[in-house]
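Input structure tokens:
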């Protein structure tokens, strides 16, 4: 299997997993029979096989048009309305995608805005893209979130001034609820091409819908392969057998560790391109589980960089952390270290070895160190980071998150805490009706 889980370093005995099997079965049935809390938001479970093919084709057509007529593509959204697309684009494309020449990049530069309210971020982005042909995609399920709404107002005006109102319609794409919200109304009035966030899929579970797929396709990635991976993930992680289902094993192990006082999970990786995948994962698990005074605190670290900072705390600090390591078995590209005649740096002992070989030794050495320090490690082995495995990995995490939430006794599909801050912000800003 192209994704596998190794929990031999998690300090968990088989009988502990055996003891939790029955609860996994209950959680599985709650999810699949739509009997658990938040069941109205479980549309993502069968989505890889049941998605709207007409909309999917429109996503492909729009992405081709954007790739042809735009040098820059601006994605406006926050939380679940941007993290998935960014995670995928950064994990699978060139590490320096936006900085490549247009021939090498073979697609527009892609920037994300509306995920903060920093005036300098917005203004400096406008400065950066000045003089280039652009298209924008505003994504908001509710259609009312302040951060993307402000950014959209600014970029809509910019694009209308640059091209005129008629041509702007060819360059503005909206992804939102099928019926409600200010953004839906605006899109209908202005005649923009619109994509839908399905009613039964919440923001953080929406990466495989148009929310994630349009920006991903604009970057030139193969969305068919992503959906194939997700579809196979749906099969593989739908099996009600803890011994065979890695996604359920991950949920079970997290739950056992949490009960032993491991309240912080650190998702680590040795590939900096996975930074936004880690951010997406943090949102998925943090927003799904952190409620009713419960929840594992999801954090992340980028190794080996953070081994020189957080590594100390992991090794020797309070014993309340466990790590989940994403191990990419085969890197995208690799190079062999050459022999140096003078060997002034004393590195000739590595001549003939690849850089990834060194990276893997860093991983092995860290695993030995952290487990000897009493930190449980779960290892998620991924053969190669490609579109297929990315789609499968997304489904792996979504499924384990839902099961994990039900094991914890919370509704993994609402976010009352996030809603509260949004409402307070509306009130403090003087929005009518708040
Ligand atoms: O998971 C969620 O529902 C949230 O994090 C949302 O994705 C985020 O708040 C953005 O909301 P919206 O898409 O409605 O603008």
């Amino acid at each position: 299997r192209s994704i596998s889980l190794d929990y031999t370093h998690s300090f968990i005995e088989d009988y502990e997993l055996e003891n939790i099997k029955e609860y996994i079965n209950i959680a599985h049935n709650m999810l699949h029979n739509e009997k658990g809390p938040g069941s109205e938001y479980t549309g993502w479970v069968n989505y890889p096989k049941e998605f709207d093919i007409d909309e999917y084709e429109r996503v492909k057509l729009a992405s081709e048009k954007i790739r042809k007529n735009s040098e820059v593509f601006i994605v406006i959204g926050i939380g679940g309305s941007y993290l998935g697309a960014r995670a995928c684009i950064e994990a699978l494309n060139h590490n320096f995608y936006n900085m490549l020449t247009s021939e090498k990049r073979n697609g527009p530069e892609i920037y994300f805005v509306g995920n903060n309210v920093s005036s300098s971020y917005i203004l400096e982005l406008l400065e950066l893209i000045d003089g280039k042909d652009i298209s924008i995609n505003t994504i908001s399920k509710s259609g009312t979130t302040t951060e993307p709404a402000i950014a959209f107002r600014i970029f809509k005006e910019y694009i209308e001034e640059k091209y005129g109102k008629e041509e702007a319609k060819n360059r503005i794409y909206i992804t939102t609820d099928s019926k409600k919200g200010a953004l839906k109304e605006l899109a209908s009035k202005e005649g923009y091409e619109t994509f839908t966030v399905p009613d039964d899929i919440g923001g953080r579970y929406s990466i495989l819908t148009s929310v994630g797929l349009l920006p991903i396709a604009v970057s030139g990635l193969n969305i068919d392969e992503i959906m194939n991976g997700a579809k196979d993930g749906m099969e593989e992680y739908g099996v009600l057998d803890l011994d065979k289902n890695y996604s359920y094993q991950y949920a079970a192990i997290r739950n056992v560790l949490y009960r032993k006082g491991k309240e912080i999970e650190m998702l680590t990786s040795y590939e900096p391109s996975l930074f936004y995948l880690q951010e997406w994962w943090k949102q998925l698990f943090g927003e799904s589980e952190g409620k009713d005074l419960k929840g594992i605190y999801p954090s992340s670290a980028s190794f080996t960089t953070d081994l020189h900072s957080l590594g100390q705390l992991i090794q020797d600090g309070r014993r309340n952390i466990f790590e989940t390591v994403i191990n990419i078995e085969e890197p995208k590209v690799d190079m062999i270290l050459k022999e140096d005649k003078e060997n002034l740096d004393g590195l000739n002992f590595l001549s003939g070895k690849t850089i990834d070989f060194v990276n893997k030794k860093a991983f092995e050495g860290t695993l030995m160190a952290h487990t000897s320090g009493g930190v449980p490690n779960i290892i998620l082995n991924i053969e190669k980071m490609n579109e297929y495995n990315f789609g499968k990995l997304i489904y792996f995490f979504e499924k384990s998150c839902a099961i994990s939430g039900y094991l914890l006794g919370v509704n993994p599909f609402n976010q009352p805490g996030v809603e509260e801050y949004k409402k307070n912000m509306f009130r403090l800003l003087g929005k009518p009706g708040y």
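The two ends are 51 Å apart (CA to CA). The chain is about 50% helix and 15% strand.
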